[in-house]
Amino acid sequence: MKKLLIALLAIGAPLAAQERKVAPTWLHRYVPNLSEQRTDFSSSSCHYTPIFGEPIYGEGATDRRVLRSVARFGEVTVGAHGACEDVEYPRQEELYFVLDGSGVLHYGDESHPMRKDDFAYVAPTVRHDLATSADQPFRLVVATVKIQPEIPIPASPPKPMVANLDELKEQTVEGHPTSVLYKLLIGPHIATRDRINAAYEVADFFLMDFAPGGTNFPHHHEVEEEIYLVLDGEGQMAAGSGMDGVMGLHPTKAGDAYYFRPNCTVGFYNQNASGAKAHIIALRTYVPLPKNPD
After folding, report:
1. How far apart are CA 216 and CA 84, in angstroms?
2. CATH number at 26-149+163-286
3. Which residues are within 8 A (CB) of 168 and not within 5 positions of it... i.e. 6 or more apart?
4. What phi-psi label fits residue 75: left (phi over 0), alpha (psi between -120 and 50 degrees) or beta?
5. Is the CB of residue 112 less than 8 Å from the CB of residue 96?
């Protein structure tokens, strides 16, 4: 009887371990392999491809367990002469980055033209949508970030905040190698470092430009989650680490996207070859701290 009990316990332990779902420290998606999904702003001419976050589909169930502040990160494509449905979020802020084409951001009663390499901040409570009158599709990255209930939100700015990469000079960032240069697009409303300083939960929305052999040394953020989307180039992404503490390196190319949970190792090594440039658009957001039970 005793031997039977020991055997049952030995079998039951692995089964119990299999039932326990451990949230991963990082996620990877290859954008060309992802499928369009309907969301609240979708229309017959406005299409959304989720990369991380909502809407939940397939691996999206994992996203719901892992992502803390980022509600949505994906690509919007507005077809020729098309428009998205207008939306309004009481406690979410939204960021756009134009990948291709041109169009218009409708923001409350205002309209602002947008073109390739433009980026924009949309404040909470403002009704907004995207449209284009061009004969070509209008394609953008969109990030929607949740604002915690305890954060006060003053009246939203009456005009949209839009700028272009051409307005920014590349710069180094303290604590990072000089082989990667940054353009700081959107940051907190209490700061002055970025081109647009307006956000509540967004720590930084930025572009990295890697020289041949350049690197963003592996590091981690204790109270922030981060997303990298590779726009062009190839290299190795540092994501997480093994039991021995050695970082995981993953071959990476344009279209690869990575999500990093707080305290996860994150970094990038560009190819060390003549002319081997690489560009990554990145989003870093604050996450709510755990409540003190005392």
Report:
1. 36
2. 2.60.120.10
3. 183, 184, 185, 195
4. beta
5. no
Tell me the domain boundaries of the chain: 26-149+163-286
Residues 6+ apart with CB under 8 A from 35: 49, 57
- Give the pair of three-digit tokens for residue 180: 């990667």
pLDDT tens track for 193-251: 999 999 999 999 999 999 999 999 899 899 999 999 999 999 999 998 755 567 789 99
Per-residue pLDDT reduced to its tens digit, 109-132: 999 999 999 999 999 999 999 999
- Give the SS3 label for residue 194: coil
Rg of the chain's alpha carbons, rounded to an integer? 21
Q: Which residues of 88-112 are buried (b: 16+ CB within 10 A; e: fewer)?
A: ebeebbbbbbbbebebbbbbbeeee
- Residue 198: what residue type? A
Q: What are phi and psi of 293, to 5 degrees?
A: -65, -20
Dist. CA 255–CA 28, nearest whole Å:
11
CA 258 to CA 63: how far, in whole Å? 12
